[in-house]
Amino acid sequence: GILNLLDRLFIFSAPSEGVALVSLVNPTATPAGNVNSTTFTPYQGYTGNGTTMYLNSQFNPSVNGVNYTQNSASAGVYVRKERATANQECEIGHSDGTTNLIVQLNYTGNIYRCFINSNSQNTSVPYTTTKGLFSVDRTASNLSNNWRNGVNVMASPTVSNAVLNVNVSILARGGVNLSTNQVSMAYFGSGGISQNVFYNIIQTFMTRVGCQV
User: Fold this and answer.
1) Residue 27 CB: number of other CB atoms within 10 A?
2) Which of 29, 13, 10, 12 is nearest to 209 (CA)?
3) Nearest Cα to 11, choosing from 34, 44, 39?
4) What distance in Å separates the CA atoms of residue 98 and residue 182, rounded to the nearest whole number?
5) What are residue 195's phi and psi, to 5 degrees?
6) Which of 21, 32, 50, 194 has minimal CB crowding within 10 Å?
7) 3-state secondary structure of 66
8) Residue-level pLDDT at 154
9) With b meaning 16 or more CB within 10 Å and e meaning fewer, what string describes 66-90?
């Protein structure tokens, strides 16, 4: 039942870019865009250079969101590298001046930093791990959660704003805070997704193609 709760599901650990950039959910939607030739490795995913390379998901939550709504939303990314140095690199996100959708791993101060439909952040201190399935969800107007590998790392009573109205970036935050990590999957959908079940499905797939972490 999870597919019915997704608006986009990009499997970047695909055999070719022609497959990797097409969402398995709503495949007729505009494919994700590869900005400045982000490095693609078959059956692994895309790797950023931290300066110019990132992916444009072509997913605008305000315009394209069906399952993704103001008080029920989630987004996440499967990350394959351990980044030891804490900095402001962003694995997925954007801001439109009113609200944010951001997932940042080992952010400055060794924190796992997330926003979803809010200007208030969720942070978990300390949290330096940057490998695995990282996601943020909003399950109520006053509750959002940080997740890693299907485990709730932090629940926070952040209050929701309007849904983000701009295309979300992957391996960047709207063209800034670019990441040097490698991503194998990204998704956007409802806050009703069971993160534990979803992680088990994704991890099984990544294991079968040989890029699991």
Assistant:
1) 10
2) 13
3) 44
4) 29
5) -65, -35
6) 194
7) coil
8) 94
9) ebbebebbbbbbbbbeebeebeebb
122-168 per-position pLDDT tens digit = 888 889 999 999 999 999 999 999 999 999 999 999 999 999 999 99
* Dist. CA 77–CA 59, nearest whole Å: 14
Q: What is the mean pLDDT of the chain?
A: 96
Q: How far is CA 120 from CA 56, 142, 143, 144, in A?
A: 24, 11, 11, 10
Cα separation, 71 vs 50, whole angstroms: 32
- Percent pLDDT > 70 in the chain is 100
DSSP assignments along 4-49, one per residue: GGEEEEEE-SSSSHHHHTS-SSSTTSPPPEEET--EEETTTEEE--
Task: Please report, as a single letter, which amino acid is at residue 190.
Answer: S
Q: What are phi and psi of 166, to 5 degrees?
A: -165, 155
Q: What is the token pair recorded at 186?
A: 């990204």
Rounded Cα distance, 19 and 165, in Å:
26
- Dist. CA 155–CA 146, nearest whole Å: 7
Coil, strand or helix: which one is 168? coil
Written as six digits, the tokens of 18 are 């022609």
